[in-house]
Write a structure and sequence with these properties.
The N terminus is likely disordered. The chain is built from 14 helices and seven strands. It has 525 residues and is an alpha+beta fold. Among the domains are: 141 residues, no CATH class; 81 residues; 117 residues. Belongs to the Vang family.
């Protein structure tokens, strides 16, 4: 990629051939040639060089491959493709079918639960009104006059129903954050309790009032008021079970990412395993740094290089089984070649040196670019309003001056797949709009941020799998371990109960603070 990047198109679309890429092209074409091409059933392989605009910034995904490449490897990259642009295997088809079946099942379960809850809630709110209106409709002439007492009860029922409606909306009608594998036990118990409660009230109302056509209308209205009062108490019970019970911390969970060992600690209350898993995932996206598989390739390449250097010879021939001697030879060869710790030390030292060097260049380039923006703003104030630059144009104007340094730094720290050019321009224009400093702009790139900081399409895992030996609806207990798996890694969660702490009190009498100054007659010369 050229150092003189003036516009957005020159930054994203620049590529050229080199001698090395041409050689790789010829070797790749010979290696990938299909046997069926001899009879003309397939066309020849073609070589294309392209840099799609939707790719991550400063190179394609191959930038994570090997450490031995130089920093300008992206400038001489040749992509070898065939005539077919898309391919799919039987395993992919089976996985897609399974995902579709799972998504359909989850959607049906979610909408069924919402439908049942909505129907039951509608029944709850209409029942007191029906208790009051049915006698007026069926035997209005036989009812005893109620007067002011019933009117006051009507107002009481109306306001209580309004309070119950607002509380139900605040507690139950929320946007679902996730799909859990099992039902929420306390919520299901509350629904069953409400159904049995309303059913019993209807049963008593039908037997004692509808069948006998009770004429005491004041008693009927008070019966409806008692139903509303009981519903308010059930709503209070729901608040205690669903919200207040889990507030007091009772457990400490340690969450460890399986790939790089990054860990965090969280305090949780009385929760089921599946709800604790939801809390862990919410905190994971906020607290854990973004998962970067490119950082793991260095250790894997070192291990592969070390194992490739070991050679074992069977000196006794294929017919003899000298396992002890072979093991001794392997151990001796391993001891002779056990210099991997030195390689690791010098590789890390060299990597840190290069990171510091690229970081310094990036900081200087960004500070110079922001200084230019400040100078432009001072000059633009004297011009006509139509000639002033908006933040987007200003960002595009100064971006080429810092793009080269940012490109090399992101490649060295292996972050290029998380930052597209469009996202960097948006962040730059945001910083310019809010008059932020160069240090504030660089904060996103100098240190890996939390997972939520990056583009949703690059970090968000659509589905997590909860693996637990205990039932996911059971509560947390001391020593429970469960695992949250996604496509690339897993989160291992270890639960420990907060120990019981016993405090004792000791009283100190203020009069006991008495001191004596001891003076010595002899002094040092």
């Amino acid at each position: 990629m050229s150092a003189a990047m003036d516009t957005e198109s020159t930054y994203s679309g620049y590529s050229h051939y080199s001698g090395h890429s041409k050689k790789a092209h010829r070797q790749g074409r010979d290696r990938h040639k299909s046997p069926r091409s001899k009879d003309g059933s397939r066309s020849e392989k073609s070589v294309t060089i392209q840099t799609p605009p939707a790719e991550p910034l400063l190179g394609n995904d191959a930038s994570r491959a090997e450490e031995g490449q130089d920093d300008n490897w992206g400038e001489t990259t040749t992509a070898i493709t065939g005539t077919s642009e898309h391919s799919i295997s039987q395993e992919d088809i089976a996985r897609i079918s399974k995902d579709l079946e799972d998504s359909v099942g989850l959607d049906c379960k979610r909408y069924l639960g919402l439908t049942v809850a909505a129907v039951l809630g509608l029944l709850v709110f209409l029942t007191p009104i029906a208790f009051i209106l049915l006698p007026q409709i069926l035997w209005r002439d036989d009812l005893e006059p109620c007067g002011t007492v019933c009117e006051g009860l009507f107002i009481s029922v109306a306001f209580k129903l309004l309070i119950l409606l607002i509380g139900t909306w605040a507690l139950f009608f929320r946007q679902p954050k996730a799909d859990i594998p099992r039902v929420f036990v306390f919520r299901a118990l509350l629904l069953v309790l409400i159904f049995l409660f309303v059913f019993s009230y209807w049963l008593f109302y039908g037997v004692r009032i509808l069948d006998s056509k009770d004429t005491n209308y004041q008693g009927i209205v008070q019966y409806a008021v008692s139903l509303v009062d009981a519903l308010l108490f059930i709503h209070y019970l729901a608040i205690v079970l669903l919200e207040l019970r889990q507030l007091q911390p009772m457990f400490t969970v340690k969450v460890v990412r399986s790939t790089d060992g990054e860990s965090r600690y969280y305090s949780l209350g009385h929760l089921s395993i599946q709800r604790a898993a939801l809390v862990v995932l919410e905190n994971y996206y906020r607290d854990f740094t973004v998962y970067n598989p490119a950082l793991l390739t260095a250790s894997k390449s070192r291990a592969a290089k070390h194992m490739a250097g070991l050679k074992v010879y069977n000196v006794d021939g294929p017919g003899n089984n000298a396992s002890g001697q072979s093991r001794a030879m392997i151990a001796a060869a391993a001891r002779r070649r056990d210099s991997s710790h030195n390689e690791l030390y010098y590789e890390e030292a060299d990597h840190e040196r290069r990171v510091k060097k690229r970081r310094a260049r990036l900081v200087v380039a960004v500070e110079e670019a922001f200084t230019h923006i400040k100078r432009l703003q001072a000059e633009e104030q004297q011009k006509a309003p139509g000639e002033m630059m908006d933040p987007r144009e200003a960002a595009q104007a100064i971006f080429p001056s810092m793009a080269r340094a940012l490109q090399k730094y992101l490649r060295t720290t292996r972050q290029q797949q998380y930052h597209s050019m469009e996202s960097i321009l948006q962040h730059l224009s945001f910083c310019i709009t809010n008059n932020m400093t160069p240090k504030a702009f660089l904060e996103r790139y100098l240190n890996p941020g939390p997972t939520l900081q990056y583009d949703r399409d690059r970090w968000f895992s659509k589905q997590w799998t909860l693996v637990s030996e205990e039932a996911v609806t059971s509560g947390l207990q001391d020593g429970i371990v469960f695992v949250l798996k996604c496509l690339d890694f897993s989160l291992v969660v270890n639960v420990k109960k907060i120990p019981f702490i016993k405090l004792s009190e000791e009283f100190i009498d203020p009069k006991s603070h008495k001191f004596v100054l001891r003076l010595q007659s002899e002094t040092s010369v």
